[in-house]
Amino acid sequence: MSPRFTTLGAYPTTRMRRNRRSDWSRRLVAETRLSVDDLIWPVFVQDGSGSRTPVGSMPGVDRLSVDLFVEAVKQARDLGIPAIAIFPEVDAARKTSDAREAYNPDNLVCRAIRAAKKAVPGIGIVCDVALDPFNADGHDGIVRDGEILNDESVEVMVRQALVQSEAGCDVLSPSDMMDGRIGAFRKALDRAGHQHVQIMSYAAKYASSFYNPFRDAIGSLGALKGDKKTYQMDPANSDEAMREVGHDIAEGADMVMVKPGLPYLDIVRRVKDAFGVPTYAYQVSGEYAMLRAAADHGWLVWDKVLLETLACFKRAGCDGILTYGAVDAARLLRGK
User: Fold this and answer.
1) Are strands 62-65 and 142-144 parallel, antiparallel or unpaired?
2) Distance CA 327, CA 192 (A)
3) What is the pTM of this model?
4) Residue 184: CA count within 13 A, CB half-sphere
5) How much is the pLDDT for 116?
6) What is the mean pLDDT of the chain?
7) Which of 14, 192, 194, 318 could disulfide-link to 9, CB 3.0 to 4.6 Å?
8) pLDDT of res. 224
């Protein structure tokens, strides 16, 4: 037991419920504060105009054409949400084994960035850097003879990071888990005059079973051959996560992320305690889908479980959370 707890009094002199008796008292002694400033909203974009496509495995989540995405960005601004994360559903005809559409300066992501920055210049734009939306193989890296190649994948993703930065991305968020990519990005960005672009690394990304609804949303689920266990982390490991985070910080990451979220709050706490850097977690698609589906069946109350889970992220040490429930949470937190 920590020394700070060795002088606790005994009942009935000490009554722990006294501080819980009234709302005003509970607010005064609250140890964790959740605010709109803690939220990043992941949004899926698609080609077309005026088009909105529901994601069947994620109730309440839609893919949006760029024009409707801009309206969503305005909504986020009006609610005080600091940043939006963009994830594309790429037309199947543009998916190739070399993922070259990832570094097309006029690809769907770059068009969405430019449109958002023109309409709402003050909002933060976070961009995923990985090849799975553009890769005919559905993997986060280049595949050759069944092997996911590390260095070749990093070379392609550097080109992807540069076109996103040129389009106006504020935060690059590499989710691929290839070795050495943070250092490669930082050097390339600095050489290109993008010293201001931040890197939020998916530093501890696990080979989780909670990602399927996301893969459904970006259209990579059917294309994926095999699994991602050779580059994403084993859920059994904790010390390995610390080494991954340490390497990414040393290579130039400004912020780090743990993914998924709720099943890995122990990792969040370890990272925050050990490194003290801005630390984020992603309430991933499977976490969102199971909570939302349970609420839709009347088994849970959505507003309550949403805020409770987000507060748990904060309590564990998160400086911010990526959540598909960001708009609902912002409305609740602002009383709208």
Assistant:
1) unpaired
2) 35
3) 0.94
4) 20
5) 98
6) 95
7) 14
8) 74
pLDDT tens digits, 196-205: 999 999 999 9
Tokens of 298: 């009347």
The active-site residue out of 205, 228, 272, 314 is: 205
Query: 95, 117, 228, 259: which is the annotated catalytic residue?
Result: 259
- pLDDT for 1 beyond 50: no
- Residue 153, exposed/middle/buried by CB under 10 A (0-12, 13-18, 19+)? buried
Give per-residue pLDDT as tens, 128-167: 999 999 999 889 999 999 999 999 999 999 999 999 999 9
Annotated binding site: 244
Instruction: Collect all residues with Cβ–Cβ distance below 8 Å to 85 and sequence separation of at least 6.
Output: 40, 41, 42, 43, 126, 127, 128, 173, 322
Task: Write out the binding residues for Mg(2+).
Answer: 244
Spatial distance between the Cα atoms of 103 and 36, rounded to a whole number of angstroms: 33
Q: How many CB atoms lie within 10 A of CB 325?
A: 25
Is 261 within 8 Å of 281 (Cβ atoms)?
yes
Rg of the chain's alpha carbons, rounded to an integer?
21
Among 136, 323, 154, 292, smallest CA distance to 219 is for 136
Spatial separation of the C-alpha atoms in residues 97 and 141, rounded to whole Å: 10
Residue 223's pLDDT is 67
Report whether 61 contacts 215 (CB < 8 A).
no
CA 192-198-200 angle, 5° bins: 130
Q: How many helices (H) and strands (E) does the chain have?
A: 11, 12
205 is catalytic: yes
Helix or strand run (H / E) with residue 127: strand 124-129
Q: Let me know if domain 33-334 sits in CATH 3.20.20.70.
A: yes
Question: pLDDT (tens digit, 9 = 90+) per residue, 276-288?
Answer: 999 999 999 999 9
